[in-house]
Amino acid sequence: MTEQLAMMDFHPQPQAGAPKPWAFPAPQRGTLDNGLTVLHCHRPGQQVVAVEINLDAPLDAEPKGLDGVSTIMARAFNEGTDKHSAEEFAAELERCGATMDAHADHPGVRVSLEVPVSRLPKALALLADALRAPAFADSEIERLVRNRLDEIPHESANPARRAAKELSRQLFPADARMSRPRQGTEETVTAIDAAAVRAFYEKHVRPATATAVVVGDLTGVDLAALLADTLGAWTGDTAEPRPVPPVIADDSGRVVIVDRPGAVQTQLLIGRIGPDRHDRVWAAQILGTYCLGGTLTSRLDRVLREEKGYTYGVRSFAQVLRSAPDGTGASMLAISGSVDTPNTGPALDDLWQVLRTLAAEGLTDAERDTAVQNLVGVAPLKFETAAAVAGTLADQVEQHLPDDFQAHLYRQLAATGTVEATAAVVSAFPADRLVTILVGDAAAIEEPVKALNIGEVTVVAG
Amino acid sequence: MPMGHTATAEAGSGGLTATEHRLANGLRVVLSEDHLTPVAAVCLWYDVGSRHEVKGRTGLAHLFEHLMFQGSKQVHGNGHFELVQGAGGSLNGTTSFERTNYFETMPTHQLELALWLEADRMGSLLAALDDESMENQRDVVKNERRQRYDNVPYGTAFEKLTALMYPEGHPYHHTPIGSMDDLDAATLEDARNFFRTYYAPNNAVLSIVGDIDPQETRAWVEKYFGSIPGHDGKPAPRDGALPDVIGGQLREVVEEEVPARALMAAYRLPEDGTRACDAADLALTVLGGGESSRLYNRLVRRDRTAVAAGFGLLRLAGAPSLGWLDVKTSGDVEVPVIEAAVDEELARFAEEGPTAEEMERAQAQLEREWLDRLGTVAGRADELCRFAVLFGDPQLALTAVRRVLEVTAEEVQEIAKARLRPDNRAVLVYEPTAPAEADTETDTETAENAEEAGR
């Protein structure tokens, strides 16, 4: 070995060259005759075009007792139209080399299409048919309902999914839609039929409240004509803007153990709610949260993973739940990961110590600098694909943000100081106001967790 | 370069070219220019994977991959991560049966840093490797195993299928994550020897893709990697060749706490890099790749006996590839019902072959997957390394999609007839058990039963 070292020439660490300018792409905005808002963006070289559709059909709008109807509707967009049966529709999409996925979440329904640009016209026509004239055939809806019911036990068995479900139940008031599973429960899904799906569609899906985002290499594509022929044929009335209820959560510090006898690891999810992108603190919160647990050299993993080996990785993050034009929206602030069963107590003890030290001593300038360099520097790689750009543009629309929000965020991040980042992360993760969900072996972890005094401990069935 | 009669004639020809070079120490270097975005991807494949591991040391290649991030002569502690991320880059490493890869995607002006970092650990890892990192990363990897495999329903299915499919003693009998016992048994000396044996410039391919100046980049590669001595101490991996077909059905029933019954199977398929492997890929796509596939239409749409049904292909170059069937049952449906339907569909497909429309759909799907892979500089860098390491020619990456599009329906039918048969598969059946009880008496009982079942 020493021999080998002697033979290699060592050089000092190289200095960076001159950075090349890069900016988050600015989309062009327009409106079709039917009221559909369209954003598009030309990305040279991106042969797989991404199309994102936002539908203003939030989970809050689901009728009482029918949680999951929005999910079933979203899935049914892939199951046939006035021109194609369900099987034919899937076949036609795949013939284009396209994928089309739809999912329902608190802010609304998102439909995502990806297709090679040469087959964009055909795929856009299929997408337009799905939105304009979905079949919602009785037997297909019945199948989707059964399929959804079959999925529920698989989700409950997954420790991460189970933890997320429990955290929502703990944080939000029982009558708030956010407290309940996004895709419904066994009881509510069972009650869904084709009539319910159609009623939801007719009430909440229309071009005037929808947005289409198209991103990719659009060289030689007459997008205006293409859109007019496809999504332009979709018709509908107008709707009053919907009031967005505020998000309320109970973040008094407590611990809930979801019992999994014999589990070799404890899945942890520690969370509360906090500001969304409308808040001036957002950039500082992103920065501080990255320093706390954005990567394996952040504070949490430096101790829990790289020093103690308790985990494969623990991350902290902020994820927007729902935003409102007036800025009353909220995001979920959380720390998640899994630790081995015997070290669950010690790992949580260390985690809380990291939070307390952060609150007492703050971030260092070096940490702040590295975080800014990373968050700003990775932008060109993060947004290399059309799908990544389209997803962010659609998020901005969904969250009632201006089209240049992301571009502006990079300037804000670069201008955010250590003191602001510290204040933001400390107020995002206060050690005494966190709801801790542990999916693990209660017999092994309950006592050690109680001894930590991080809140009252209750055990619920797995 | 032309991509044949594809959906995107311009896609491939948009300047996708690659050049190859070799340093005096044996390091192969592949460069590919693309100036659309100011980023550059660095990818380094070492020709070593879990197939090179020996009995009693499964998981060593992957554990070693973790140690590559623990510092080298000029890089301290987690410096590799810190420097790349601090430069606005992203990075990782992964280990598979056949290779270990390390990659950084950097803003163009930070490319030189990534090369310096990779060279430092290729040449001087042992200067920093110590017991402390070894013990720490051993624990991290054991937690990775728990998180990704042991603590998730069906999490060890792939490991079980592999063990059934490739016989005891075969280099692919175990998966890269390795066993807990072997991870515990690995020593610092094992790690040192592993480095000395496999981490040499003449056992690696370096690809650099993106917004690069080829001349400047070649000069940097020469400067940082050129003086690392090559060596030839690498033993050839054990032969992974097996007969074309298994010649009988292998079977294991797993009784575990899972949410639903499942039928999984692994079919023995042709090695990667062959036209027959591309034909098998198309066959599996027609049968189980997406929501217009034959198995999805039959099991999920029509019979409604399954929640999900699909086929995947694990391409392997040093052993037969593996076609992985995965069906989760719906409600109370029993596995034999599913199995009979699968057999019927496979037999019908072998008899009829794909329709022209099915071929078109399968080829369009695989083509889009290729465009996705080649659509980022990191994906392109990885594919160039793959074809250079496994098949000796990086240029093959740029024509791979054309080869898939050239396969005929007859070839697809032929491979289905020859390989997608009950006597050429290993079957794994999951039967759910009731959840374990929490009190100690039942625990003891469960443990005894488990031991009996294991004999």
Notes on the structure:
The complex is a heterodimer of chains A (462) and B (455). With 462 residues, chain A is an alpha+beta fold. Chain A has 2 domains: 28-233, Metalloenzyme, LuxS/M16 peptidase-like (Cytochrome Bc1 Complex, Chain A, domain 1); 254-461, 2-Layer Sandwich (Cytochrome Bc1 Complex, Chain A, domain 1), CATH 3.30.830.10. Chain A has 18 helices and 12 strands. Chain A has helices at 2-7, 69-76, 86-95, 120-132, 138-157, 159-171, 186-190, 194-204, 223-229, 282-293, 299-304, 344-361, 365-377, 379-382, 386-398, 405-415, 418-428, 442-450, and strands at 28-31, 37-42, 48-55, 99-105, 108-116, 211-216, 254-259, 265-274, 311-322, 330-340, 435-440, 456-461. In chain A, strands 1-2-6-3-5-4 form a 6-stranded mixed sheet, with helices on both faces. Chain A starts with a helix and ends with a strand. With 455 residues, chain B is of the alpha+beta class. Chain B is built from 17 helices and 11 strands. Chain B has a 6-stranded mixed sheet with strand order 1-2-6-3-5-4, sandwiched between helices. In chain B, strand 1 (19-22) and strand 2 form a beta hairpin. In chain B, helix 4 runs parallel beside helix 9 (214-225) and helix 12 crosses helix 16 (409-419). The longest helix of chain B has 20 residues, at 131-150. Chains A and B meet through helix 1, helix 3, strand 5, helix 5 and strand 10 of A and helix 1, helix 3, strand 5, helix 4 and helix 5 of B.
